[in-house]
Design goal:
The protein is built from five helices and twelve strands. By secondary structure, it is α/β, with parallel strands linked by helices. The protein folds into two domains: 31-124, Translation factors (Elongation Factor Tu (Ef-tu), domain 3, Beta Barrel), CATH 2.40.30.10; 140-276, Rossmann fold (3-Layer(aba) Sandwich), CATH 3.40.50.80. A hairpin with a 4-residue loop joins strand 1 (39-46) and strand 2 (51-58). The radius of gyration is 19 Å and the shape is globular. The protein starts with 38 loop residues before the first strand and ends in a 7-residue tail after the last strand. Bound molecules: flavin-adenine dinucleotide. Flavin-adenine dinucleotide (FAD) binds at residues 70, 84-87, 99-102, 104, 107-110, 129, 148, 151, 275, 277-279, 281. Flavin-adenine dinucleotide binds at residues 70, 84-87, 99-102, 104, 107-110, 129, 148, 151, 275, 277-279, 281.
């Protein structure tokens, strides 16, 4: 078991695989010859009863990917293979992938995922998606996420940090409760080193689980405006809208509102890169 808020995705020490039961999956191969169980859940850490980190090891070795991309994860649920996309938080090409997932009550996949434990065989697709860093971009990188939308952003931040001369970066992460601030340790270290400005913000500061929180409050979008205004955030200075690229990931409401705030401050549309985790339901 890995602890919450620990720097991610260094491979777990080799462990003896449990007796592999394919009980959870229908057959090694589905109709048409597509492999079904081709990966194993090797680690799980619950941050709260609704948010957890899952580490999945592909059975056939590391999968090529780019920071920010997602994979489909699949489980057999009531005799059918049910798959959902999840962003990889681990560094590209690592032996284990890491997923930060919220349990959606009444959902088809996540309640079944919550019933799994280490050793569960899973189906794993290939890396997909274009929510990735624009190449050779020296603009200030502004990352804005809600909840589990931090996963691909963490991968991007780590990839950016690996560059010889990484551009300046600001990471805004909005959650309801402090315990949902995944990867806080890693981001705090990067913040303390002076490379990123990490702004975790709590939307329900008066609730008991948030007692003692003395950081930013309100939704992620609220933290944005100050970054572009004179004299700007005390830790960041004023961001230049013409020299900023923004990456937004998570709930569709935040993406709409944050996109509007960025546009109102003059960030051009081509400098706003987004990944929506689900579609807003019509009222
Ligand atoms: C490219 C991509 C990457 C994704 N990466 C992640 C990730 O890294 N972590 C993660 O937790 N989720 C991620 N998702 C969402 C994920 O794929 C599932 O939609 C989610 O886990 C719900 O699946 P489910 O089968 O339990 O619910 P479903 O039965 O599919 O959906 C139930 C309802 O809940 C809505 N819904 C879906 N997700 C949420 C949510 N988080 N909060 C509230 N309502 C929701 C859906 O719109 C739907 O109406 C990603 C989605 C996309 C498109």
């Amino acid at each position: 078991m890995i602890g919450p808020n620990v720097t991610l995705a260094r491979p777990l020490p080799a462990r003896t695989a449990p007796a592999r039961s394919l009980e959870g999956l229908p057959a090694r191969r589905a109709t048409g010859g597509t492999p079904v169980a081709n990966a194993t859940l090797v680690g799980r850490a619950d941050l709260t009863d609704q948010v957890a980190r899952f580490r999945v090891r592909p059975d056939d070795g590391p999968r090529p990917s780019v920071a920010g991309q997602y994979f489909s994860l699949g489980l057999n649920i009531d005799g059918a293979l049910v798959k959902r996309p999840y962003s990889n938080a681990a560094e590209a090409g690592a032996a284990e992938l890491e997923f930060l997932i919220r349990r959606v009550p009444g959902g088809r996949f996540t309640p079944a995922l919550w019933a799994t434990s280490e050793g569960t065989p899973m189906s794993l697709g290939r890396a997909t998606g274009v929510f990735t860093l624009l190449p050779e971009d020296d603009r200030t990188h502004l990352f804005i996420s809600t909840g589990t939308g931090l996963a691909p952003i963490l991968a991007m931040v780590n990839a950016l940090h690996d560059r010889p001369d990484p551009p300046r970066a600001v990471v805004v992460h909005g959650v309801a409760h402090v315990a949902e601030l995944a990867y806080r340790d890693r981001l705090t270290v990067l913040h303390a080193a002076g490379w990123i400005r990490y702004i975790p913000t709590i939307s329900r500061p008066t609730e008991a689980p948030n007692a003692g929180w003395d950081g930013a409050t309100g939704h992620a979008t609220r933290a944005l405006s100050g970054l572009f205004e004179d004299p700007g955030d005390p830790g960041t200075g004023r961001l230049d809208p013409g020299a900023t690229v923004a990456y937004l990931c998570g709930n569709p409401g935040m993406i709409e509102s944050a996109g509007a705030v960025l546009a109102s401050h003059g960030v051009p549309p081509e400098a706003i890169v987004t990944e929506r985790y689900w579609a807003e339901q019509p009222a």
